[in-house]
Amino acid sequence: MGSLLISNGTVVTLGKGNRILHVHDVACEGGVITAIAPHGKLPGEFDRVIDASGKVVMPGFINAHMHLYSTLVRGLGKAKSSADFTQVLENLWWRLDRKLDLEDCYYSALMVLIEAVRHGTTTLFDHHASPSALPGCLDAIARAVREVGVRASLCYELSDRDGPEVARAGSEENVAFIGRCRAAKDDRLSAMFGLHASFTLSDATLERAATVGRELSVGFHVHVAEATSDQEHCQREFGLRVVERLGKFGVLGARSIAAHCVHVSAREMELLAETGTPVAHNPQSNMNNAVGVADVLAMLRRGVLVGLGTDAMTVNMPEEVRAALFVRHLAEKSPSVGFAETLSTLLVNNARIANRHFPMRVGELRDGYAADLVLIDYEPPTPLDEGTFLGHLAFGLSQAVVDTTVVGGRVLMAGKRLEIDLDEAEVAARARERSRALWERF
Ligand SMILES: [Zn+2]
């Protein structure tokens, strides 16, 4: 990988004091950004120059909660209709994940990671389940991550729902992958310890996971109070709220991710803040499953670091943040609250979460930061500056087309053409074959 110059673009730095730099160049070498300067001012020769005129150049997007395994379900009409969230899991997701084999995991991940490149998403936090593809499913997904070239944090969602054998294998999958990931020292891959959710984890399983996680000093990625049923179960069985129960076992913390938190009390929000536990808000999924709307503003007010995930609804992060904004307004019954706060979940907070998990600093265009950047076709119809940028992101850039995606200085797509060593049509054909067979077994 040689040096790269992104030339003559509108550079959006993000980070503290986000700057909009018109007619600027970004130089990258050795996987990091080495300089940002007015167009034509950077000396030296570059191995490759990409023209960014008519384009916004900004950090690649980060997805704080994803399920790469869900791709092969698209269009599957065999699941019974569900009356509530528990039935969605029983009728669809748990039926599906039990049928996935190792190749399904690989192709499911590969397809949607290519879509991520097409939408400028360069870092993803995945949460995986495939009880019949243990051991080895995380390696299959890691292979897809390496082949596509994005950054990803992987974990296996430990659960008691498929019995003690699968629970033991799920725990071992986490431990083995964490070990291999650390030994590999690949700055694109990171590992967490995955937990499904309080309502499918016994005290004994949670205790064992917490002990192992502490020994490995690793964060936990867990679904928290996504539906009211998780809270009802927790209070009925354990006399505790979900966040309290997770806190009791020590699985909260700055390197963990609590996905959803739709039904958390003020006291639980305080616990999340006290322990520094980030929350991943997934508005499109929450709307789709009709589970409610997380009170993001209340969590932010209490000092909780709230980021944005998609729960596999999309890999298009500007679309997700736009949905977050609309559902915020609807929930608050006000068209004018939470605009900057909602946008900050994607643009600021996701970078803070990612920077706890990857050795390279991401989420900002700045000297020494990872050269993870996207070029988006965008001729702004109104002035684009620091004061107007959020409006352009929500209402313009979210509708624009990503032209170029770079991760760690490596060009994965340029001029909307993939530059990875995979034939997208061939991969899609294989994925369709696999889904046909998977749907037969479903
Ligand atoms: Zn999820």
Polypeptide structure, described:
The protein is 39% helix and 21% strand. Helix 2 runs parallel beside helix 3, helix 2 packs across helix 14 and helix 11 crosses helix 12. With 442 residues, it is an alpha/beta fold. It is globular. The longest helix has 21 residues. The strands form three sheets. Strands 1, 2, 3, 4, 5, 15, 16, 17 and 18 form a nine-stranded mixed beta sheet that branches. Strand 7, helix 3 and strand 8 form a beta-alpha-beta unit. The protein contains 14 helices and 18 strands. The model has no long low-confidence stretch (mean pLDDT 97). It binds zinc ion. Zinc ion (ZN) binds next to loops.
Identify the overall geometry. Answer: globular
Cα(first) to Cα(last) distance is 43 Å
**Biggest sheet record:** 9 strands, mixed
Instruction: Count helical runs.
Output: 14
State mean pLDDT (0 to 100 scale). Answer: 97
Rg value: 21 Å
Strand percentage:
15-25%
Q: Are any ligands bound, and if so which?
A: zinc ion
Fraction of residues in helix: 25-40%
Class of secondary structure makeup: alpha/beta
Tally of strands: 18
Unreliable runs? none
Q: How would you sum up this structure in a few lines?
A:
With 442 residues, the chain is of the alpha/beta class. It has 14 helices and 18 strands.
Topology (SSEs and partners):
Layout lengths: L3 E9 L7 E10 L2 E7 L9 E4 L3 E5 L1 E6 L18 H13 L4 H17 L2 E6 L10 H12 L2 E4 L9 H21 L4 E3 L1 E5 L5 H14 L3 E5 L3 H11 L3 H7 L8 E4 L5 H9 L4 E3 L1 H6 L7 H6 L4 E3 L8 H16 L6 H16 L18 E5 L11 H7 L6 E6 L2 E5 L2 E2 L5 H18 L1
Parallel strand pairs: 1-4, 1-5, 6-7, 7-8, 8-9, 10-11, 11-12, 12-13, 13-14
Antiparallel strand pairs: 1-2, 2-3, 5-15, 15-16, 16-17, 17-18
Helix pairs in contact: 2-3, 2-14, 4-5, 7-8, 11-12
The site of zinc ion has 6 residues, from loops.
